[in-house]
Amino acid sequence: MLKKISVSEATLGMYLQSLEGSWLSHPFWKTKFVLTDPADLAALQRSGVPAVWIDVSKGCDVGEDPAPAPVAAAEPAEPVAAPAVAPAAPAPALSAAPAPEPALAPAAPRLPTARFEDEVGRAAEVLYRSKQAVTALFNEARLGKAVDAESCLPIVEEVATSLARNPSAFVSLARLKTKDDYTYMHSVAVCGLMVALARHMGLPDEQVREAGLAGLLHDVGKMQMPLDVLNKPGSLTDAEFAVMRSHPERGWELLKDGAKVPEVALDVCLHHHEKIDGTGYPHKLAGDQISLMARMGAVCDVYDAITSTRPYKAAWDPAGSLQRMAQWKGQFDPIIFQAFVKSVGIYPVGTLVRLQSGRLAVVVDQNPTALVSPQVKVFFSTKSGMPIPVQLVDLAAQGCTDRIAGREPAENWNFGHLEDLWNPNSKR
């Protein structure tokens, strides 16, 4: 039986079914769990959440002693309380320059809790559900309806949960878009990239969630673009490009009238095309005039765009894309770009590499503590010019003497089955 109680009445042993108030103010990634940790109870009490719903059939009721009471087992993904953070300062006016952000120390690498091959199926299901939800959300935006940010909660939460189990699985599958679903899946992919980057940078959980939400909504303004321009298979004319350059402002207009859209999402939507050297748009902001989250959004947006098949271009390979982005001086914040590379891997999943042994291999998973030594599948000998039996090799394993000699451009080899090697769900 469900019962609504004030947070002051919450005690250990209660089964939290849901929390009142804004999702972004919640101290947990998930609800529906047994409150067993005193730290979680303390985080709940200082969160500002006014009330919670408890299920007394699965946990303690008000006034019950939690010690002898049989309590239902926690759900598989046990929530972790977010660190206490000071309330965010009011957002500056759009014309004002934000204050410089403090330097952030990268977090310790998060070790995956699931192998790539075990998570990839679940990640595919999350991507499918996310696409359906984003398509519905964006179609409403196309009709001019305001966006309800909290309706995006299930998407961001599912994406973040998959990334926590194995970030490479979700990020890699999110690259595999068709030309027809690019606009929708790009938003889901940037959501995932923003969550992964924010976690790597050591941001508190509340800001990680805001980063994911901002990534999900950053391109909503494209729903106000003419379809013949948005989906044009060739190069845009100057007039058409001017129309497309208006999408950040059109998106900001949609979001500012929405329900519970945080300032972070508004800012990333409006400024994810700004560049560090001041040549971006719409406001030609430079350096620290661009907020931390907008600088993060700029990197995530471009990476997913160039590694995806678009109506007018084929996808670039992930490692090659990182190399090209590193050469675009003045476009990205160099510190954030370095953190991004580490969050996706120096050799992202799907990268074709040449080993010192002369074998060619495809990267199939990362080793978070050894980014230059991922797990690969070898399949071809450059010495004999012939395929060899496919073998999984962990380059970080003790006793492994082979190493990556460099990235190998896939277009030089015309291999047609690389995705089959790293994606167990490939239907080729």
UniProtKB/TrEMBL annotation:
Transmembrane segments: none annotated. Residues 161-356 form the HD-GYP domain. Pfam families: DUF3391, HD_5. InterPro entries: DUF3391, HD/PDEase_dom, HD_GYP_dom, HDIG_dom. This is HD-GYP domain-containing protein. It comes from Pelomonas baiyunensis.
